[in-house]
Write a structure and sequence with these properties.
Elements (H helix, E strand, L loop, with lengths): L1 E4 L6 H15 L7 E4 L5 H8 L4 E5 L16 H6 L4 E4 L2 H6 L4 H14 L2 E6 L3 H5 L3 H13 L11 E4 L13 H16 L3 H6 L1 E5 L7 H5 L7 E3 L6 H11 L1
Parallel strand pairs: 1-2, 1-8, 2-3, 3-4, 4-5, 5-6, 6-7, 7-8
Helix pairs in contact: 1-2, 1-11, 5-7, 7-8
The protein binds phosphoenolpyruvate.
C-alpha cells in the first residue's frame, strides 16, 4: 500500500487537476494498493473521479461515534455513504495539535473496522523519546492501546503506519536499520496477541519518503508500504513512489 496524506492541502479544483494527472501514471502499478487521503471536502469529488481505477480514497480522521453532539466532527457512516474506503487514525499531527488520545483511538479503530472502513493506525516516537531510549516503550503503548478493542481475528486487517515524528515533514528519514527495527517491533507487538494475524498486518513506513529514498525503504523485510505526506502532493513524485513499490 502506498498512501498519500494530503493534510490541509488542495481545494476540490486542485484535487481534480491532480487526480487527472495521477490516474494515467499509476494505471499499471500491479499489486500496489494506491490510496489518496484528501481533506473532507474533496472526498466526494475524489471518490467520483477514481471510480473504476486502482486508486482508493481514504479520510484523514473520523469521530468514534456514529452520530451525536460533536460539533465539527465526521463519522464512519458518513464516510461510508460517500464510498470512502478507509481512514487514517491517530496521525501525530492529530495527536500533537488536536488532542487526539489513545483512549479515543481505542474506540475509533474498531468503529472504523465495523463500519467497513480500512483503518491506518499511526504510531511513532518523538526525537526526545528516541534519544532517551524510549522508542519501544512508546510504540508498545500506542499499538497496545490502539488495538485493545479490536477482536483478535480481525487484527490482521489493521494497517499500522510507523512514523517517527522527527522524520515527518523534516526531510530527515529513518535509516533503513532504524525503520526495520521499529517495524519488526510493531509487528511483534501484534504477534503478542496472534502470530497468524501479525503476518497479515500491513506495516507502512512514514516520514519524509521521497522518490529517491522510497525503493530502499520499501525493500525492507517488515515494510509493506508507505504513508507519504509532502511527496504525495505532486502527482509525478507520488507516482514515482508507487512505481518503486511495484
Ligand atoms: C505524514 O504526514 O504522514 C508524513 C509521513 O509526512 P512527510 O512524508 O511529509 O514526512
Amino acid at each position: 500500500m502506498i498512501a498519500g496524506n494530503w493534510k490541509l492541502h488542495k481545494t476540490v479544483a486542485e484535487a481534480e487537476a491532480y487526480i487527472q494527472a495521477l490516474l494515467p501514471r499509476v494505471s499499471t502499478a500491479d499489486g500496489v494498493e494506491v490510496v489518496i487521503c484528501p481533506a473532507y471536502l474533496a472526498l466526494q469529488a475524489m471518490v467520483d473521479s477514481t471510480r473504476g481505477s486502482r486508486v482508493a480514497v481514504y479520510a484523514q480522521n473520523m469521530h468514534q461515534a456514529p452520530e451525536g453532539a460533536f460539533t465539527g466532527e465526521v463519522s464512519a457512516p458518513m464516510l461510508c455513504e460517500l464510498d470512502v474506503g478507509g481512514v487514517i487514525l491517530g496521525h501525530s499531527e492529530r495527536r500533537e495539535l488536536f488532542g487526539e488520545t489513545d483512549r479515543a483511538l481505542q474506540l475509533k479503530v474498531p468503529a472504523a473496522l465495523e463500519a467497513g472502513l480500512q483503518p491506518i493506525l499511526c504510531v511513532g516516537e518523538t526525537e526526545d523519546e528516541r534519544d532517551r531510549g524510549d522508542t519501544e516503550r512508546k510504540l508498545r503503548h500506542q499499538v497496545q492501546e490502539g488495538l485493545a478493542k479490536v477482536p483478535i481475528e480481525r487484527l490482521g486487517e489493521i494497517v499500522i503506519a510507523y512514523e517517527p515524528i522527527w522524520a515527518i515533514g523534516t526531510g530527515r528519514v529513518a535509516t533503513p536499520a532504524q525503520a526495520q527495527e521499529a517495524m519488526a517491533f510493531v509487528r511483534a507487538l501484534v504477534a503478542d496477541r496472534s502470530r497468524a494475524e501479525a503476518d497479515k498486518t500491513r506495516v507502512l513506513y512514514g516520514g519524509s519518503v521521497k522518490p529517491d529514498n522510497a525503493a530502499e525503504l520499501l525493500a525492507l523485510p517488515d515494510v509493506d508500504g508507505a504513508l507519504v505526506g509532502g511527496a504525495s502532493l505532486d502527482a509525478e513524485s507520488f507516482a514515482t513512489i508507487v512505481a518503486a513499490a511495484g
